[in-house]
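Subject: for your reference before the review

Hello V.,

The reviewers asked for a structural picture of the protein, and I figured it would be easier to keep everything in one thread rather than splitting it across files. Below is the amino acid sequence we used in the manuscript, unchanged from the supplementary table.
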Amino acid sequence: MWGNKRRTLSLILKILAGILAVVLAFGIYRAYRNQLAKDAAEKHEYSAVYQEHTQNEVEAKQAYNDLIDEEFEKDAECVRVNLPGIVCWGDTLTVGTTGGVSYPSVLQDLINSNICSVYNFRAQMEKLGDFSSSRVVWSDYKVMIPVVNMGVYGESAPTIAGRSGAMPYLLYRSVTIPEDCTAVQVTLTCAVGQPVNPLENGESGINDVSIAGVTGKLSRVRAGLYMFTRNEPGDPVLAEAGTEVITACSDMYTDFIPVILIGTYGGYTSTEDYIEMVRSMIGHHHTETGRFLIVGPFTSSASNTGSRFTALEQALQQAFGDNFINARKYFCSDAMSDAKLSYTKADQQEVSRGTVPGSLRNPLAPEELTATGYELLGKLIYTRMDQLGWFDEVREELGINAQ
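And here is what came back from the structure prediction:
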């Protein structure tokens, strides 16, 4: 009997132990599942926080970049409006054939060293906040003010005016442009009745030309005689005498500030003719702001006697005021000391006649300058632009004065 009770008790204890084990296991399982759920919830919450943080960081970086682009666009727009570029129209004195130096290249170097290269956009932005985390390639943010050399060796004043598009070349005789691409002979003249001779020493913006709406190429046979070849076949076109010959560069630089130095090789019979050509070139550009420079001729292939230029210089001074530079007067006064050169006896005699001293002229071509002469001319033009305040708005916007 007692034995049966012991077996029964043992069985009950085993059952209870089993139940307890099951309950304990279930409790552990529940705790495990709860922990997994908690971990998942925490992971999800962390992921959401991380994504939100990442999104905020992306938005912050984008805001930084947008602000950077916005501020740079203000600077770039100021340059485009006030100093879109400078175009130098002229002959040999613009080409600059001596020593590989030209006044346009000197002008470009001065603008670069005083404006473009000094511009520090990063320093400007750091005044507005900390942009160190934006990983900006600051060197990409730079401004350019191009100086274009549109000089051609030996060209007369009306040849330059025609090439620029200001006073277009005209057909001297009527001509029928054939339907195919066969070259046709043309002769050229200009509005002031002077000979013109483009393409003699260089193209520099001539081709492609347009005659009576037909586009093609102009080639030189000899002085005054040319061939025109249309680019594509089409209907035959009658181009009557007086039809304009429109050059490729006619509308290339109309928003640039023009610097005009013409007349070394003649092409005008009176002061009035010269000023008419100059006015046409000024008017061809968008010069509503009054930003243009006229550099009077100061050497000549015919004669370098100063009296040859006096009447023209006086007329140019009266017509254009501070927009006129009397380069001959400068070369006969301050240029030698600016170049730290001593006058030779020949220099003194030439200056007494109002002639640019020989020490600043090419001995093989007296109408040309030496490399030093071209450097002085470039500095003279840059200084006048600076004195007229043409760089002020850009310097202020770019923060150059404060640096």
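For the response letter, the relevant points are probably these. The radius of gyration is 39 Å. The longest helix spans residues 2-82.

Happy to draft the paragraph if you're swamped.

O.
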